[in-house]
Amino acid sequence: MVQTLEEILERCTVKIKIPSKSGWGTGFFVDSDLILTCAHVVKGATSEPIQVYWQNQEAFEAAVIEEIYSDPFDIALLRLSSVSNKFSCVYLDTDIRSSDVFYAFGYPDDFENGAPVTFECEGITGDEPPLIKFKRGQARPGLSGSPLLNKRTGRVCGIVKFTRDRATDLGGGGIAVETALTKFSSLRERQKEFHEKDKRWSDALSYYFGKTLEIKSDVGIDYKPLQQFLENGDWMKADGETVELFFRITNTDYRNIPDIGAIKRFPCSDLRTIDCLWTTYSRKHFGFSTQQQIWGNIEEKSGNSHHKFLKFANQIGWLPDDYDFEKGYLGGLFEGKNNLEADLSYPEGFLPTVGFLLPMINWATIAESGEYFNLKETLGFVSTYASVFGKFAGPAIKTWLRVRSFDQTHYLNSFAKSTVAGTYERVWQLYGEHSIALMQRLRVCQIKV
Fold first, then answer.
1. Is the pTM of this model over 0.70?
2. pLDDT, tens digit, for every residue of 89-124?
3. Nearest-5° angle of CA 263, CA 267, CA 272?
4. Residues 6+ positions from 245 with CB-CB distance below 8 Å
5. Over the stretch 322-361, which tens digit does the pLDDT of each residue have?
6. Where are the domains of the chain?
7. At the top level of CATH, which class does the domain 5-80 belong to?
8. CATH topology of domain 101-192
9. What is d(CA 218, CA 445) in angstroms, rounded to the nearest whole number?
């Protein structure tokens, strides 16, 4: 049976004692032989070995200080004298939001064999480095150095540092994982290598989120590749897989993109499955329903859906205010979409891009293949019979996306400027039409965050 995240967290957590000091603190494994804790827990340790106790064992493992940063950072990395495969390792993550629920396991003075405690996150302080404030839990002496498991993300986001009142449930404060990852430069890579080999935490995470997953398909789609990309946090690969799924489900391809009718007929069960996978593994940071919620919060003052789309695209990071892609998150798109490395620091709703980018993907693919690019099919009224050789189409589209104002160029006469400006407007209308159709389909399928 797969262990729960709470069970694995307990197995990752150790009691730390300095022989010459009274009391103790807590630490937790971040690699097979590395323990993360607070610097004040091991303050005073000199030549004598630090004693590390695990799972109520009377015998201890010896450890030494690998790297330490005192106030204001208050973090220390300990190295065991020997590597043991019996220890698991927590999965670190920097994502923190107010009202997140934290589960901690440590060794408080009133439960010397270890005990859990839960807290509610109040937010991040303005200190440098920033601290996590949490409440509704009792932070007793001995808990310093305990891992804070974020119940929303299923990963450890902080380290217990201090109490606000040891006698009540006023809570305390913690060190953000981001501080440790910044100061201990090799820690991020070591975490990655460990969890690629040891799947205990990943398996528990899949089970943790999988309990709420409902994967169904009316057209026989295998969603395992998409789920694997999302589980591994390969957001751009997951985005590309989502595009491929849209093609497969609508029986279209790069040269014959789904029209508005195809999007409006998209099977609800498959749309729910794709959204469920995205929202589950990104903790609702990405996903169609997240986009729909943002869309619904935008006031349509002018009555023009196209203007509403531009405002929406700006808010989720697709378009800067002036349409200049080089300033936005998608700046490297035409240099190769796979070069983008999206993460959860990107704006909420940024992914998946499928509703917005299907027309763009079509143009870019044809341009790169060296085939003829028929403007009549895509832009309709702009050019009736014009065809442009593929290698010229890409640069032309780049220009349309990056030029803020066609009045700034001296290479076009007034008629040409007017024609290109009309083309430019039609490009964004086409993007908007796809996104609007997708939002309408989400409402029909009753998909909500």
1. no
2. 999 999 898 888 999 999 999 998 999 999 999 999
3. 100
4. 221, 223, 226, 270, 274
5. 555 455 555 544 444 444 566 777 888 888 988 666 555 4
6. 5-80, 101-192, 212-449
7. mainly beta
8. Thrombin, subunit H (2.40.10)
9. 13
